[in-house]
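Re: How this chain folds, sequence and tokenised backbone to follow

Filed under: protein folding, tokenised backbone structure, sequence and structure records.

Contents: The amino acid chain and a row of whole-number tokens, matched residue for residue.

Body of memo: The sequence and its backbone structure tokens, given next.
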Amino acid sequence: MAFFIGYQCIYTDLQYLYNACTQLILIRGQFTILEQGSNDGRQQAK
């Protein structure tokens, strides 16, 4: 039983890490889009 609880904790930690990584990737993707947009704006302004 103790082993099962330990396994559940590890599984929860992995899920948390996976969610955190997904959030980071999404945030980085949004920043990349924002940077590309501002770069396009600068090029058009010139």
Observations:
- The mean pLDDT is 82.
- The two ends are 68 Å apart (CA to CA).
- The chain has one helix and no strands.
